[in-house]
Specification:
Protein name: Response regulator transcription factor
Modified residues (4-aspartylphosphate): 63
Number of strands: 7
InterPro entries: CheY-like_superfamily, NreC/VraR/RcsB-like_REC, Sig_transdc_resp-reg_C-effctor, Sig_transdc_resp-reg_receiver, Tscrpt_reg_LuxR_C, WalR-like
Largest sheet: 7 strands, mixed
Distance between the termini: 22 Å
Domain Response regulatory: 12-130
Shape: globular
Structural class: alpha/beta
Number of helices: 10
Helix content: 40-55%
Domain HTH luxR-type: 158-223
């Protein structure tokens, strides 16, 4: 059985989807996983933003097709509100769509998952997100890399900030951009997971970005990582970074 959250700490969730049966089904699925608990549900973006502040969930799961704000804007508002408890947000999409994937990057979402993801993979993806990893359904990560490396319009970003990174911070950032989770990065560099998080947080602070997804986009956009270096294959649950 999949066990959720961080150790014995419960991970709380907010689900925002316009369809009640989807909310109920996803809630039942995730509530059945030890360590995960759905504390709020919303049928639209405005309600989701309000509940994020009042319920203080750890992870927010948002449908891309919310009827009022849309999924990307809902996530952006929640993250910009600076609710301390919210550690990450996942965007749920019906199909791999370049605009939705890139919008998720811009808003700081911690992952993009297809709605047809199998139940066990959905639970595993939420658990991975709760542990601070970036998660994508199979196929989404490769599209993300293609988007970042073949954009006709460059990111509106000062790439010279990459030069402010220390050698170790750059190494960690490269490995994260290539699809490795914190545990794998720690093994590759022979350092602790806590040290990986410290270097990554410092790198993101210097780059003035708020999510691992944005770190991936910048790494490919500005040549810190090139496509042929990306990780081959995809974890069974969801691609975790």
């Amino acid at each position: 059985m999949i066990s959720g959250g961080n150790g014995d700490v419960e991970t709380t969730l907010l689900i925002a989807d316009a369809h009640p049966w989807t909310r109920l089904g996803l809630s039942a699925l995730l509530n059945a996983v030890p360590g995960l608990r759905v504390v709020a549900q919303a049928a639209d973006g405005e309600t989701a933003c309000a509940l994020a502040g009042s319920a203080g969930p750890d992870i927010v799961i948002v449908d891309a097709d919310l009827p009022d704000l849309g999924g990307a804007e809902t996530i952006q508002r929640i993250l910009e509100a600076g609710v301390e408890e919210v550690r990450g947000a996942l965007l749920m999409v019906s199909a791999v769509d370049d605009n939705e994937i890139y919008a998720a990057l811009q808003t700081g979402a911690g992952g993009v998952l297809l709605k047809n993801i199998p139940p066990d993979q959905m639970a595993a993806a939420v658990i991975s997100a709760a542990r601070g990893n970036m998660v994508f359904s199979p196929g989404v990560m490769s599209r993300l890399i293609d988007i970042c490396t073949h954009r006709t319009t460059p990111l509106d970003y000062d790439g010279s900030r990459l030069a402010t990174l220390t050698m170790r911070e750059a190494e960690v950032l490269k490995l994260v951009a290539k699809g490795h989770g914190n545990a794998t990065v720690a093994k590759i560099l022979h350092i602790s997971e806590a040290t990986v998080k410290t270097h990554l947080n410092r790198a993101m602070g210097k780059l003035e970005i708020s999510s691992r997804a944005q770190a991936v986009a910048l790494s490919y956009e500005f040549g810190l990582v090139i496509p042929r270096q990306r990780v081959a294959g995809t974890p069974s649950a969801a691609h975790s970074a």
